Amino acid sequence: MDPNKNTREEFTNAIVSRPIPEFASPDWKKYVQRSQVLLDKLAHHTAMAPNLHQPYMTPANSKNKVYFEWDFVGRTLSMFYALNPTLQGLTKQEKEKWQDAIGRTTFTKMLILDTTPGMLNMMTETTYPDQRGAHPDFGEEILELARHLDD
């Protein structure tokens, strides 16, 4: 895929439709499947509509918290994909990458579920001041997915 031509939707569809190998470890499979579902739901959230059909490398029209999480979850999922799905014979560096990806998954859960006052809102506003006070709700479906990301 060409990030200067293919859209965020095309990239999302490619990453969430990547097959899970039958031989994958249960932990790898769990984290990848849950992240795939969450990424797809974030991509198709109404707050992503201004961004979804833009080329991946084009600056987003709306850098809201849904966009931020979509980007974060997609990058985390790429970290999982970079590892041997069996999780066998990992080098020290690969083990660290595995732990980083799990930590990012836990952080995703925390950011999505934290609504008082909302670290994600503060992070978004600090990076993108035009988002001050404009925080779309994730909706119950995304909240429920986040609750079970790292069960």
Search tags:
single chain; 151 residues; mainly alpha; 7 helices; 58% helix; 0% strand; globular
Averaged pLDDT, please? 92
Alpha-beta content class = mainly alpha
| Computed CA radius of gyration, to the nearest angstrom | 16 Å
| Poorly predicted runs of 5 or more residues | none
Write the element-wise H/E pattern from the N-terminal end onward.
HHHHHHH
Strand content: under 5%
> What overall geometry do the principal axes of the alpha carbons give?
globular
The main sheet comes to: none
Total helix count? 7
Multimer state: single chain
Let me know the number of strands.
0
Alpha-carbon distance between the two ends: 33 Å
Question: How would you describe what is shown here?
Answer:
It is a single chain. With 151 residues, the protein is mostly helical. The chain has helices spanning 8-16, 26-43, 49-52, 65-81, 92-113, 119-127, 140-147. It is globular. The mean pLDDT is 92.
Describe the SSE topology.
Blueprint: H1 8-16, H2 26-43, H3 49-52, H4 65-81, H5 92-113, H6 119-127, H7 140-147
Helix pairs in contact: 1-2, 2-4, 2-7, 4-5, 5-7
State the gist of this model:
The protein has helices at 8-16, 26-43, 49-52, 65-81, 92-113, 119-127, 140-147. With 151 residues, it is mainly α.
